């Protein structure tokens, strides 16, 4: 999701946070994956750029076991 974050204007501005910030993107990503795979899933943010200092956020997709 490099360059497509709702916080892209905040990245590399010296702003830091201790909590997750990109839950909106996680929800969008889960919705797209769910639609493409036709399987229920959710996305968990595992790395927020405001926490890591990187210029991207990382997410993990978890599929519900049938």
UniProtKB/TrEMBL annotation:
It comes from marine sediment metagenome. This is 4-vinyl reductase 4VR domain-containing protein. Residues 2-63 form the 4-vinyl reductase 4VR domain. InterPro entries: NO_sig/Golgi_transp_ligand-bd, V4R. The lineage of its organism: unclassified sequences, metagenomes, ecological metagenomes. Signal peptide: none annotated. Coiled coil: none annotated.
């Amino acid at each position: 999701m490099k360059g497509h974050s709702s916080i892209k204007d905040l990245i590399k501005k010296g702003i830091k946070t201790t909590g997750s910030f990109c839950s909106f993107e996680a929800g969008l990503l889960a919705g797209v994956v769910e639609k493409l795979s036709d399987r229920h899933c959710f996305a968990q943010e595992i790395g927020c750029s405001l926490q890591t200092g990187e210029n991207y956020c990382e997410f993990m997709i978890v599929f519900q076991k049938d």
